[in-house]
Design goal:
The chain contains eleven helices and 13 strands. By secondary structure, the protein is an alpha/beta fold. It has a domain of about 210 residues: NAD(P)-binding Rossmann-like Domain (Rossmann fold). It is globular, with a radius of gyration of 19 Å. Bound molecules: nicotinamide-adenine-dinucleotide (NAD) and uridine-5'-diphosphate-4-deoxy-4-fluoro-alpha-D-galactose. The site of nicotinamide-adenine-dinucleotide has 28 residues, from helix 1, strand 2, helix 5, strand 5 and strand 7.
């Protein structure tokens, strides 16, 4: 069985390529390297001792998609490709809608032309907006997103649901990720954000490294036990394991399904920092700052549907997430760039 992994060179995509190779799947990765480095895929091949096929190209480019489907026998697609910086999406809405939505429409069209109608889509807990209930189940109504990035996820979900309604030959799994962090234990692949990180864990690892002076904690006056926001951090290896389980589901012609991928445990910003210091022995100086616009106070999943239907449950805790994120950052202080 062969899997097309769009966004395969990225943070989650590279971990997926690795796991799929380990599980015996053939892997075809497509990435335009807009936010990644093809070294990630060289390292995936080094770790596994197996080879994959890499196409440097864009999901908006019908020619490259057509070439992939004519040159390779693809059984499933895991669709990670997309732009994901929340703040940037507010500045560049057209670019985000075009890349993420037109890109997905183009991919879906080329897939159906090629008769490949099995797809796993990377969605996000952001589609719940300010969630109507905690913990968040898949039945929780979708909410109003605070940024164009979030809307692209919400709209693509709708597109996939309507495509399925019109054509039941599609098998679609929508996975709503909570907060993926950590890295493969080899410390050869990991998260490598360009510039100053927007997300908490990469910011923490760069402060620990001494590349950034201190962490700013966005808001200490939320209605939470320690006043800081609560999130559901999930180890990237657990998250990717959920995708392998989702492929098995597609193999059974499962139609359309939606799952949360989270641990079900809420962790505050300060708890994450404490855990990081405990797991690594490295200090992380921080200062309290004002709230960040658009942040919701509490967001964590009820992941029991994925356990029931996919037989999937997260195995790693915050300690391992911090340890592995740090190992990667420490051994690759500049990410995939050469020192
Ligand atoms: P990433 O930026 O590391 O990976 C995305 C990859 O897609 C990059 O390698 C980028 O170069 C590529 N890409 C972007 N536009 C493309 C295009 N038009 N054609 C081909 N390749 C393109 O991000 P990630 O963290 O690995 O995220 C993967 C997916 O998961 C994204 O869709 C993201 O929105 C979603 N997601 C991520 C998180 C998270 O916190 N990491 C949370 C929820 C959802
Ligand atoms: N935070 C800080 N300081 C920082 C960075 C973050 O205090 O320097 C705080 C944020 O205010 C938030 C928490 O850490 O309370 C987590 O923030 P992230 O930016 O790491 O993650 P978010 O929950 O805001 O968003 C992430 C992804 C989104 C995705 C969402 C839900 O960035 O793309 O999870 O899956 F939509």
């Amino acid at each position: 069985m062969n899997v097309l992994v769009t966004g395969g060179a990225g943070y989650l995509g590279s971990h997926a390529c690795l796991k799929l190779l380990e599980e015996g799947y053939g892997v075809v990765a497509l990435d335009n390297l807009a936010n990644s480095n093809s070294k990630s895929l060289e390292r995936v091949q080094k770790i596994t001792g197996k080879t994959l096929k890499f196409y440097e190209g864009d999901i908006l480019d019908r020619e490259v998609l057509g070439r992939i489907f004519s040159e390779q026998k693809i059984d499933f697609c895991i669709h990670f490709a997309g732009l994901k910086a929340v703040g940037e999406s507010v500045q560049k809405p057209w670019e985000y809608y075009n890349n993420n939505i037109t890109g997905t429409l183009t991919l879906l069209d080329e897939m159906r032309k090629a008769g490949v109608k099995n797809i796993i889509f990377s969605s996000s807990a952001t589609v719940y907006g300010d969630p109507a209930q905690i913990p968040i189940t898949e039945e929780c109504p979708k909410g109003s997103c605070t940024n164009p990035y979030g809307w692209t996820k919400s709209m693509i979900e709708q597109i996939l649901m309507d495509m399925y309604k019109a054509d039941n030959e599609w098998n679609i799994v929508i996975l709503r990720y909570f907060n993926p962090v950590g890295a493969h234990q080899s410390a050869l692949i990991g998260e490598d954000p360009k510039g100053i990180p927007n997300n908490l864990m990469p910011y923490v690892t760069q402060v620990a490294l001494g590349r950034l002076p201190q962490l700013g904690v966005f808001g200490g006056d939320y209605d939470t036990p320690d006043g800081t926001c609560i999130r559901d951090y999930i180890h990237v290896l657990d998250l990717i394991d959920g995708h392998v389980k989702a492929i098995k589901k597609l193999e059974d012609n499962s139609g359309l399904s939606i799952y949360n991928l989270g641990t079900g445990h809420g962790v505050s910003v300060l708890e994450l920092v404490e855990n990081f210091i405990k797991a690594t022995g490295v200090d992380v100086p921080y200062v309290m700052k004002d709230r960040r616009a658009g942040d919701i106070p509490v967001c964590y999943s009820d992941p029991s549907k994925a356990e029931r239907e996919l037989g999937w449950k997260a195995q790693y805790g915050v300690f391992e997430m911090c340890r592995d994120a740090w190992n990667w950052q420490m051994k690759n202080p500049k990410g995939y760039e050469e020192e």
